[in-house]
Amino acid sequence: MKNRIGIDAGGSLIKIAYEENGRFHFRKLPFGEMDEALGWLKLVSSNKRVSLTGGRAGKIKAKFFPDAEIIDEFTAACEGANYLMMEEGLPNGEKSILINIGTGTSWFKIEGENYERVLGSGIGGGTFMGMGKLLADPSDFASLVSLSDSGEKGNVDLLVKDIYHPEEPPIPGDLTASNFAKTEAISSSSAADKMASVLNMIAEIITLLTVQTAALHSTKRVIFIGSTLAGNKPLQESLDFYCKMSGLEPTFLQTGEFSGAIGAILK
Predict the structure, then answer these.
(1) Active site annotation includes 73
(2) How many C-beta neighbours within 10 Å does residue 201 have?
């Protein structure tokens, strides 16, 4: 693997994996910085084999690496995730659902070396960024994550306890009864509150689809990867809470955002 480079060109980011001194190293950059970064990579990789994956792989191949091999993005993501599970000491032979949260979200059934994409949704990191453009001043991902972490979704969302007040609700009162439903309070709520609501809604939808997918394939083991989770502690914590509340066993791979780039090398 030491003479190979894997590049995962997704909808928003380019993720690069390469081997040096016996270890994988990683780099990621916005797609808008592609020309400068990949121009440099082309100069330093003359003796290395480049493998590409992701929706923009064809564009990169045509412009920078005409001899590169293109690997199917779903195959690459699953191969890379299996590798990372082994590296992190996790059992990788059991049936599980792999959830890749990038610009959108994909669900895969994995069992040993067999995998199959079983579901997809347009809800993901692209949703978070797009709503951030509409509702908040910060436009970069890290700032929006920080903003959402400082907000209070209950100022925007109608919660179960709001409906039952002053009675005690039959289920946890902080659960969402309806997203963005406090119509009279929304105009006075902060951008942080609105982004907290957006992030929570994304977590709820992804969890709901994960619960249904896991039940359909008779497993409780779910593995999360994807660039939207990187540096996004609020989303990880929300997914972890909702999944465990629903009886699932969630795991978040530490460098899961580079699963596609790693898988491109391995495959």
Answers:
(1) yes
(2) 21
Q: Is 33's pLDDT higher than 90?
A: no
Which DSSP category does 221 fall into? E
**Is the confidence at residue 240, as pLDDT, over 80?**
yes
Identify residue 254 by its one-letter amino acid code: Q
User: Which run of H or E residues covers position 215?
Assistant: helix 191-216
154-185 burial by CB neighbour count: b if 16+ within 10 A, else e? bbbbbbbbeeeeeeebeeebeebbebbbbeee
Catalytic-labelled residue, pool 19, 33, 36, 73: 73
Residue bearing tokens 């006075």:
188
Structural domains of the chain ordered from first start:
4-92+258-266 (3.30.420.40), 121-254 (3.30.420.40)
pTM (two decimals): 0.92
Q: Following DSSP, what letter does each residue of 24-82 receive, concatenated?
A: EEEEEEEGGGHHHHHHHHHHHTTTSEEEEESTTHHHHHHHT-TTPEE--HHHHHHHHHH
